[in-house]
Amino acid sequence: MVFIFTALYPEAKPLIKMFGLKKRTDRSRFQQFVPEDYIKAASGTDGMEKENKEGKIKPGMVLAITGVGPVNAAAAVSSVLTEYNAGSGDQLLSFGTAAALHGRKEGSENPEGTMFLLNKLLDQNSDRCFYPDMLIDAMVPEASAVTGSSVLSERAAAFMDMAARDYDLYDMEAAAVYQTGAFYMGPHQMSFMRVVTDMGVSDNVSDVRMLSDRVTGSVEKNVEQILGYVEKLREISLEDEKRMKIFGDGEEKYVEKVIADAHFSKVMKDSFTQYVKYAALSGINWRRIVEKLYDEGVLPTIDKRNGKKVLDVVRNVISE
Q: 100 - beta bridge partners?
């Protein structure tokens, strides 16, 4: 499954059209756009209402609009990833627009309208850096970005030209999306793309429609490259899902039982699932290991702290 997050509708509009997505009218907290066949499944018009209520049906893609700023971005990402039970088989793309921090250099091309894949994110508020894994050739230039919590004015951009010499772009969501997404996914499952639309917003700009059209126009110029990148994310997600389907129904239920009995956190749950998948592919009888823990009274546990001990035992035995 591919999750796409944008801050603004003008950023999302060309993508919604390109992928033929429809708005979910049963969601009011954050706007979501999904394939039309999922809308039918959710409404029960295709006879699959029961499976959908049980969470067995998921859209291949969800585009969600977060709103502007790190708080909105974090809230939306957490809400959407939780709703669809995001995990190791999914991919996240944070897409949007950004300001070029250092303007147009002498002898260089105007960066406005250029799309970049972000390789380094700085949270301006905490001064922490994050590094998405660059595993896919996006065929676009790379850049680093500063994530702040206020709109970059031309005056602030002049200051940032000195204060953030090692960074190329400024946005208001990327670092927050990364930090929130990390509760559900690894760095190799998250990508960040930004299209340059300005070099700091003028205090005199008051025409919202003009700004909206500029954003949409900048995104539309890059739709083919975005489509190619999202298709690569889809292929990776499908391959990961195939690799994950190595358990029969009985084994899958047993895995879920152990996860519940051990009080695993989200991270511990994903680690345990990866260990037992490795064991199954390697011909290791992982169930015998777990059944011994039940016989010894180690399972069920009373809390996550004791669940960590269970995870350590399983990991140590399987990796011997």
A: 169
